[in-house]
Amino acid sequence: MSESSPGSKTRRKSETPAQRIERLERELQAAKHEAKKAEQRRCAIVGAALLAEAEGNPSLRTQFVEILRRRVTSPAAKAEIATLLILR
Predict the structure, then answer these.
(1) How far apart are CA 69 and CA 2, in angstroms?
(2) Are residues 65 and 47 in the same domain?
(3) Number of independent structural domains in the chain
(4) What residue numbers bound the domain in which 50 lies?
């Protein structure tokens, strides 16, 4: 491992405790950001699959609309999904 590579023992030994805390906090924030992005991707995939299935399944669509009406409570979120709440 070269001295200039990230994570090298030489670099870490030269860090002050405050620098190490700052670096670890940045790494933690980056990891949290990546975890949030992954969760958003999973939600989008699951949502798209459910929407596609509900289009051809009236019983599922009715259940889906009932769940959305019960679980989505904020006015802003309701406005975002308003077209989904209309039974066809």
Answers:
(1) 58
(2) no
(3) 2
(4) 1-55
